[in-house]
C-alpha cells in the first residue's frame, strides 16, 4: 500500500520532480532559500488565487503556508493588485529612487498602530530590519554583545543565526544555554558576542542579563517563539523591567507576529513597549519589505548629517562615524508600500481581524476535537491567526519542550496532507487569511482525519 501511494504521488507531482532536478543544475540545492526545501523534492507552484495554490502538475491545495505568513489577505487579492496598478499608473514608473509620499503615509500608520514606535526606517526584509535594529542598539549603548533566546529565529545573519534549533547534545544547561552556530561561516567572535537566554524562564534570564549587563547592547526576542509559542505575560513584563534597569535595549522581532497576533502586534497584546521593533511579512502586502520602528532618540542616530554619506569624497567623509549608516536602493519601494497600505486598510475594516481569528479558532478547535476522538494527544498552540499542531498533552513553553514531542508522527501526517491537497511545508506553522472560508476549514479537518487513518494503518501494517 505504501509503495502504491508513493508511486501515485510521484506521478501526480512529476512536474515538480523534473523542475527540481533541472534547478539543481543551476541553483545550489535547487532552491533560492534553504527553508523552501523538503524531501524528496519541494512542490513547485504555478499560480495562486484566494486560499488556493495550483502546482505545475495542476494539483490544487488549500494554502496554510501563505508565503510563511506574509499573505494575510490570500493570493492575488483584487484590492491589493488594483492598489499597485493604480500607483504604478500614478507615478509612471516602478520606483522613483527618491523620497516619496507613501513613505510618510506608511510610517504614520505604523506609529498609529504600534505602541513602541515613534519613528520608522524601511528595509527590504525582516532580516534586514533585525540587523538594523541590532546595529542601532550597539551604536546607541556603545556596547558590543547582544542576547537572543534559544529557539528564536531573527533571519540568516551571523550574530543571530545561533541556537535556533540546537542539537540536544550541544545545547548546554537549560538555565544557561550554549551559543550553538546554525551555519558554517559563523566566527568564534560572533558566537562569543551572542548570549543565549532561556525563553519563558525569567529567573534564569535575569541572572544571565545581570552577569553580562556591562557588555549587552540589546536583547532581541520573538514575543511568540516561531510564531506559535507565546511568551508568558509575566515573563514579558519582567523582561521589560530588567532590561530598563540594566540599560539594555529591548528589541521585539514582530516579523511573524506583526498584524497576526493583533493589528498592533504582540506588543499591543502584552502591553509591553519595546525600544525597537522589527517588522516584515504582512507589512508588504505580499511584496518584500522590512521596517524598524522605535523610540525617537534611538531612531535619530540613523539620521544623515552633512558629509555623513560614506560615498562622499574627502576628509569630511569621516563624519560617518557619528551616524548609524543605513541604506538600500529599494528601501521604501512605492509599489511595496502601496500594497502594504492596502493590506492594512483591509485589516482595519470592521470585524476583519475578528473574522480571521474566528476562522483560525474554528480550525484549531475542530482539529483538537477530531484527534481527541481517536485518542490522540494533540494540542494547537499559537496566537491570533497563526498556530501550530503539537502531538503531546504537555505544556509547550519553549524550545526544549519540543524535544518531548513526537516529531515523526507529525511529519507523517503532513506528508499525507500534501497528497490530500493541504499545503504546508511539513512541520511548519499554520497561517490563515481573510479569504479562508468555512468550506476550507471543513475540508482541512476532513483531510486531517483521512491522513490520520492512513498513518495509523501504515503503523499497524508495520
Description:
Belongs to the class-III pyridoxal-phosphate-dependent aminotransferase family. The protein has 14 helices and 18 strands. By secondary structure, the protein is α/β, with parallel strands linked by helices. The protein is globular, with a radius of gyration of 23 Å. Helix 12 runs parallel beside helix 14. The protein has two domains: 187 residues, Aspartate Aminotransferase, domain 1 (Alpha-Beta Complex); 271 residues, 3-Layer(aba) Sandwich (Aspartate Aminotransferase, domain 2), CATH 3.40.640.10. The strands form five sheets. It has a seven-stranded mixed β-sheet, with helices on both faces.
Compact description:
The chain is α/β, with parallel strands linked by helices and 462 residues long.
What brief labels describe this structure?
single chain; 462 residues; alpha/beta; Aspartate Aminotransferase, domain 1; Aspartate Aminotransferase, domain 2; 2 domains; seven-stranded mixed beta sheet; Aminotrans_3; isomerase; pyridoxal phosphate
* N-to-C span: 11 Å
CATH class of the largest domain: Alpha Beta
Can you count the beta strands?
Answer: 18
Q: Output the number of helix runs.
A: 14
So what's the oligomer here? Answer: single chain
Largest sheet: 7 strands, mixed
The unreliable regions are none
Count of folded domains: 2
Q: Measured on Cα atoms, how large is the radius of gyration?
A: 23 Å
Instruction: Kindly state the percentage of residues in helix.
Output: 25-40%
- Describe the strand arrangement of the main beta sheet, using strand numbers: 4-14-13-12-9-5-8
Mean pLDDT: 94
Q: What's the CATH topology label of the largest domain? A: Aspartate Aminotransferase, domain 2
InterPro entries: Aminotrans_3, Aminotrans_3_PPA_site, PyrdxlP-dep_Trfase, PyrdxlP-dep_Trfase_major, PyrdxlP-dep_Trfase_small
Keywords: Isomerase, Pyridoxal phosphate
Pfam families: Aminotran_3 (PF00202)
Cofactor: pyridoxal 5'-phosphate
Amino acid at each position: 500500500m505504501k509503495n502504491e501511494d508513493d508511486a501515485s504521488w510521484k506521478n501526480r507531482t512529476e512536474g515538480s520532480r523534473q523542475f527540481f532536478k533541472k534547478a539543481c543544475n543551476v541553483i545550489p540545492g535547487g532552491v533560492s532559500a534553504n527553508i523552501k526545501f523538503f524531501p524528496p523534492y519541494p512542490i513547485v507552484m504555478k499560480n495562486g488565487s484566494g486560499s488556493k495554490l495550483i502546482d505545475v502538475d495542476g494539483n490544487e491545495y488549500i494554502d496554510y503556508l501563505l508565503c510563511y505568513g506574509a499573505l494575510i489577505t490570500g493570493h492575488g487579492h483584487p484590492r491589493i493588485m488594483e492598489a499597485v496598478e493604480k500607483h504604478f499608473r500614478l507615478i509612471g514608473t516602478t520606483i522613483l529612487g527618491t523620497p516619496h509620499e507613501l513613505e510618510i503615509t506608511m510610517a504614520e500608520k505604523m506609529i498609529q498602530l504600534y505602541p513602541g514606535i515613534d519613528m520608522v526606517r524601511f528595509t527590504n526584509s525582516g532580516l534586514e530590519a533585525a540587523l538594523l535594529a541590532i546595529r542601532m542598539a550597539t551604536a546607541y549603548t556603545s556596547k558590543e554583545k547582544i542576547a537572543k533566546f534559544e529557539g528564536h529565529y531573527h533571519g540568516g545573519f551571523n550574530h543571530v543565526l545561533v541556537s535556533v534549533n540546537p542539537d540536544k547534545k550541544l545545547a548546554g544547561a537549560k538555565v544557561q544555554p550554549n551559543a550553538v552556530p546554525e551555519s558554517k561561516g559563523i566566527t568564534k567572535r560572533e558566537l562569543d558576542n551572542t548570549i543565549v537566554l532561556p525563553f519563558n524562564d525569567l529567573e534564569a534570564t535575569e541572572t544571565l542579563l545581570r552577569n553580562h549587563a556591562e557588555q549587552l547592547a540589546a536583547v532581541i526576542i520573538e514575543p511568540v517563539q516561531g510564531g506559535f509559542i507565546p511568551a508568558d505575560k509575566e515573563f514579558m513584563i519582567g523582561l521589560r523591567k530588567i532590561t530598563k534597569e540594566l540599560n539594555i535595549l529591548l528589541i521585539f522581532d514582530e516579523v511573524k507576529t506583526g498584524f497576526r497576533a493583533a493589528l498592533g502586534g504582540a506588543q499591543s497584546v502584552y502591553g509591553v513597549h519595546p525600544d525597537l521593533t522589527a517588522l516584515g511579512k504582512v507589512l508588504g502586502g505580499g511584496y518584500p519589505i522590512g521596517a524598524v520602528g522605535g523610540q525617537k532618540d534611538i531612531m535619530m542616530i540613523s539620521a544623515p548629517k552633512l558629509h555623513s554619506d560614506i560615498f562622499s569624497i574627502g576628509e569630511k567623509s569621516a563624519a560617518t562615524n557619528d551616524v548609524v549608516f543605513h541604506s538600500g536602493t529599494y528601501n521604501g519601494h512605492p509599489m511595496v508600500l502601496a500594497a502594504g497600505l492596502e493590506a492594512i486598510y483591509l485589516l482595519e475594516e470592521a470585524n476583519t481581524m475578528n473574522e480571521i481569528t474566528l476562522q483560525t479558532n474554528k480550525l484549531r478547535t475542530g482539529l483538537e476535537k477530531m484527534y481527541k476522538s481517536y485518542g490522540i494527544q494533540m494540542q494547537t498552540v499559537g496566537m491570533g491567526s497563526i498556530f501550530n499542531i503539537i502531538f503531546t498533552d504537555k505544556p509547550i513553553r519553549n524550545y526544549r519542550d519540543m524535544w518531548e514531542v513526537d516529531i515523526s508522527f507529525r511529519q507523517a501526517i503532513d506528508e499525507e496532507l500534501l497528497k490530500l491537497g493541504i499545503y504546508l511545508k511539513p512541520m511548519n506553522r499554520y497561517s490563515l487569511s481573510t479569504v479562508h472560508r468555512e468550506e476550507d476549514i471543513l475540508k482541512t479537518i476532513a483531510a486531517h482525519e483521512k491522513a490520520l487513518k492512513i498513518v495509523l494503518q501504515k503503523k499497524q501494517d508495520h
